[in-house]
């Protein structure tokens, strides 16, 4: 089926079409979870539920006594005593909702995976070679849930927020799950992909994807330290292109992950490198045959990169409003999805 010419694969003969739709749907749902997770973080709601109950936690408090019990549990952690001692029960219910909703849809992702997966197995749409990797994605999704609780638990005893290290692990794992879903779905597309592909194209495409993943992780460190709340100027940062204080912490490596100034500087720097690198790829492709066939992805990726940079600058200059910040995070995942589709199509060229 992979070798069929474009337009010669009918829906009736394309037994993997429902599988692709399912995988793209799962990727879209992962993106929804990321968006809700971003809102949860920006509203400082992530520590409102102080226990992990995989089954019973689906049901929120249903009466005054249950709400009071949840509120009293929250009052025992540092975030409440240090930052939120002013909260009333109604204030708490607002932050509780976002964390509960985030956990609910994350659980529902498992249902959206396993039920169609079993159906497709029964229908014999999945070969053994395909079923095993897909089940691996299910395991990765479960691991992501465990990472989420590991992240939350870091803020329940000593910190007033979650560890930026664990937040970065959680968000990066989500990006890997999203990318894997897009990659498998795209790889199952019927027909041929046209274009000339060399090892240069493949290696540079993979390198671009790696850079985007690193940038998502760097963005998580910015979020975890609230580093975007400071140094809200551009292109200068603290009045300079290279600000003072980048290596103020000792040992030096801590600055890369714990110094808000350095973390934001790194996030900016990776963005500049991605823009320059993509500019080089576009120039190189223009000199080497243009953007027909599979390389038509590059101009689209370039447009999204510029849009993402503009959105990031606006988010910074406006001191991280929720709408812009969530949009910036969501667009980063969409960019990763586009680059993934490009890499998948590079591999499909015959």
Automatic annotation (TrEMBL):
Top-level enzyme category: oxidoreductase
Cofactor: heme b
Positions of heme binding: 267, 328
Pathway: Porphyrin-containing compound metabolism; heme A biosynthesis; heme A from heme O: step 1/1
Keyword vocabulary terms for this entry: Cell membrane, Heme biosynthesis, Iron, Membrane, Metal-binding, Oxidoreductase, Transmembrane, Transmembrane helix
GO biological process: heme A biosynthetic process
Chief subcellular location: membrane
Membrane protein topology class: Multi-pass membrane protein
GO molecular function: heme A synthase activity; metal ion binding
Reactions accelerated catalytically: Fe(II)-heme o + 2 A + H2O = Fe(II)-heme a + 2 AH2
UniProt-listed InterPro entries: COX15/CtaA_fam (IPR003780), HemeA_Synthase_type2 (IPR023754)
A matching Pfam family: COX15-CtaA
Enzyme Commission designation: 1.17.99.9
Bilayer-crossing regions: 21-42, 104-122, 134-152, 164-185, 206-225, 265-283, 303-320, 326-344
Gene Ontology CC, one term: plasma membrane
Compartments in which it is found: Cell membrane; Membrane
Function of the molecule: Catalyzes the conversion of heme O to heme A by two successive hydroxylations of the methyl group at C8. The first hydroxylation forms heme I, the second hydroxylation results in an unstable dihydroxymethyl group, which spontaneously dehydrates, resulting in the formyl group of heme A.
Family assignment from sequence similarity: Belongs to the COX15/CtaA family. Type 2 subfamily.
PANTHER family attached to this UniProt entry: CYTOCHROME C OXIDASE ASSEMBLY PROTEIN COX15 (PTHR23289), CYTOCHROME C OXIDASE ASSEMBLY PROTEIN COX15 HOMOLOG (PTHR23289:SF2)
HAMAP family recorded: HemeA_synth_type2 (MF_01665)
Entry protein name: Heme A synthase
Gene: ctaA
């Amino acid at each position: 089926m992979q070798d069929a010419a474009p337009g010669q694969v009918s829906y009736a003969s394309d037994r993997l079409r429902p599988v692709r739709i399912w995988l793209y749907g799962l990727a879209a749902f992962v993106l929804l979870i990321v968006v809700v997770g971003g809102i949860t973080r920006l509203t400082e709601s992530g520590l409102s539920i102080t226990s992990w109950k995989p089954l019973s936690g689906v049901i929120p408090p249903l009466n005054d006594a249950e709400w009071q019990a949840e509120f009293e549990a929250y009052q025992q952690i540092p975030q409440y005593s240090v930052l939120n001692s002013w909260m009333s029960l109604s204030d708490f219910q607002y932050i509780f909702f976002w964390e509960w909703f985030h956990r609910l849809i994350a659980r529902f992702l498992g249902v959206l995976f396993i039920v169609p997966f079993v159906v497709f197995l029964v229908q014999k749409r999945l070969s053994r070679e395909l079923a095993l990797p897909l089940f691996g994605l299910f395991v990765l999704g479960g691991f992501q849930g465990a990472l989420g609780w590991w992240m939350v638990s870091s803020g329940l005893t000593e910190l007033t927020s979650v560890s930026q290290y664990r937040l970065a692990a959680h968000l990066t794992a989500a990006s890997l799950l999203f990318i894997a879903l897009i990659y498998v779905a795209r790889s199952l597309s019927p027909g041929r992909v046209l274009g000339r592909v060399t090892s240069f194209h493949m290696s540079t495409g993979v390198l671009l994807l790696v850079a985007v993943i690193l940038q998502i992780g760097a963005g998580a460190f910015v979020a975890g330290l609230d580093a975007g709340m400071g140094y809200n100027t551009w292109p200068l940062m603290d009045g300079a292109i290279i600000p003072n204080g980048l290596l103020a912490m000792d040992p030096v490596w801590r600055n890369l992950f714990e110094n808000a100034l350095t973390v934001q500087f790194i996030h900016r720097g990776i963005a500049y490198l991605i823009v320059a690198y993509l500019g080089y790829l576009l120039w190189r492709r223009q000199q080497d045959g243009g953007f027909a066939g599979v390389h038509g992805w590059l101009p689209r990726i370039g447009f999204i990169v510029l849009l993402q940079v503009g959105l990031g600058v606006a988010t910074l200059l406006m001191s991280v409003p929720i709408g812009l910040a969530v949009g910036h995070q969501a667009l980063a995942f969409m960019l990763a999805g586009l680059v993934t589709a490009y890499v998948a199509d590079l591999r499909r060229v015959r």
